[in-house]
Structure formats: C-alpha cells, structure tokens
Amino acid sequence: MQEDSQRLSVLTQLFTVGIERADIMLEMISRSPIKLKLLSVDLFPPQQLPMQLEKQVSFKGLKAVEMVFTGEFQGNTQLIFPKQTATILIDLIESEDRRKLDKEAFEKAIFSEVGNIFYNGIMGVISTLCEYGITYMIPKYKEGELRQILLGNLSPKYSIALMGVIQVLQDRNLVFWFQFDTLEKLLEKSGNIGDYFDV
Q1: Cross-strand pairs, 140
Q2: How confident is the model at residue 1 (pLDDT cuts 50, 70, 90)?
Q3: How far is residue 144's CA from residue 77's CA, in Å, rounded to a whole number?
Q4: How far apart are CA 139 and CA 32, in angstroms?
Q5: How far, rounded to the nearest angstrom, does the alpha carbon of residue 173 sit from its chain's CA centroid?
Q6: Helix 2-29 / helix 103-129 crossing angle, nearest 10 deg
Q7: Contacts for 31-38 with beta carbons within 8 Å, 24 or more apart?
Q8: pLDDT number for residue 75
C-alpha cells in the first residue's frame, strides 16, 4: 500500500507539471481563461481500463485524441473529451477561421489542437526527464462510443494502466489514460524532476 502511495505521489507531481505547461498554452488560444486542474491519478491493471473509464465517461458522444510512444519504455495514451466538456471547449476555442469549416472538420480541428497541447505538455516533461530517450507519434483523432475509441488500444504487452481526471471548469472534466510496458523506468526518471522543473 505504501509503495502504491509513493508511486502515485511521484506520478501526480509529474502530471501536474505537464498539465500546468499545457494550461499555459491552452489559455493562449482560448477566448476565456481556462485553468486546468489535476483532480486524480490512479493505477490499475490494464484489463481494468474499460471498467475504470466507464465510471468517468458516458458510453456515447465521445471525442478522443490518442498517441503511441516508444523508447526507454513503451506505451499508448488517450485524452477523452466527455460530451459536455467537449461542448464547452468548442465555445471557448472557436475562431473565425475554424467557423469556416464544416461541423465535423471544425470539431476535429479543436479537439486535435487541445490534444496536441496536452501531449506537448505531458510528453515534453517525460522527454526532458528521459533526456529525449522517448519518441512519440503524431496524435490521432477519434470519436464514437467508448468501445469504438478504445478499439485497437488494448494489448497484453502492457503491464500497468494509469488514469487521470482533469477539471476544465466546474463539473466539466477531461479524462486521460496511459498504458506502459513498465512503470519503473518512468518512476526512476521522475525522481529527478526537481532538477528540471519548479515543483
């Protein structure tokens, strides 16, 4: 129990730094102040990922941006926009240029940009800690029911899953998850986070 508590403490610190960096970038493109706040981080076996997500998001109307990373450790990740949060973000981030797009392209552009900002923040911190020993792919946009956005992401090669909840506005959250082949290397690197960032 103590080991899990220590691991969560280290990971919470890492993701808090990454989300704060993403928040700065997100505020630059929004029409109103956005303050991202990490509410929780949890660890569990990858087999439990669908069940854990069901507790946080509805089955339908989901948007997501996903990404794969390789290097010192490997895994995949997804940022999920529940329907009500997605609506709020569209209102906050719409622009004259985006309004010229059709609805599908308009929404994809907004959620892809938010996903890119989120991953630039998080993976930027991880890459720095690993001294750029991590390579991550271009994020990919998905939409649909929960089982559709998870399709192709669940694999026995991953040993542990992490899920976090981020508050955008009151009662409007984003949900993200990561799967890793090993967590120990990331935990080891995260012990040096104070050498690179103000924590």
Answers
A1: 66
A2: very low
A3: 17
A4: 25
A5: 12
A6: 130
A7: 31/92, 31/93, 31/94, 32/92, 34/92, 34/168, 34/169, 36/166, 36/167, 36/168, 36/174, 37/166, 37/167, 38/12, 38/164, 38/165, 38/166
A8: 96
Q: Six-digit token pair at 25?
A: 């970038």
Distances (CA, A) of 65 to 111, 142, 175: 7, 6, 11
Q: What is the DSSP string of the chain?
A: -HHHHHHHHHHHHHHHHHHHHHHHHHHHH-SS----EEEEEEEE-GGGHHHHHHTTS-SSSEEEEEEEEEESS-EEEEEEE-HHHHHHHHHHH--HHHHTS-HHHHHHHHHHHHHHHHHHHHHHHHHHHTTT-EEEPPPEEEEESHHHHHTTT--TT--EEEEEEEEEETTEEEEEEEEES-SHHHHHHHTTGGGTS--
Express each pLDDT in 20-65 by its tens digit: 999 999 988 887 778 899 999 999 999 999 999 999 998 788 999 9
| Chain mean position to CA 83 | 16
Tokens of 73: 């450790």
Of 78, 49, 199, 197, nearest to 136 by C-alpha is 78
Query: Do the beta carbons of residue 23 and residue 125 sit within 8 Å?
Result: no
Q: Which two tokens stand for residue 101?
A: 């797009």
Q: Give the contacts of 96 (CB within 8 A, at least 6 positions apart).
A: none
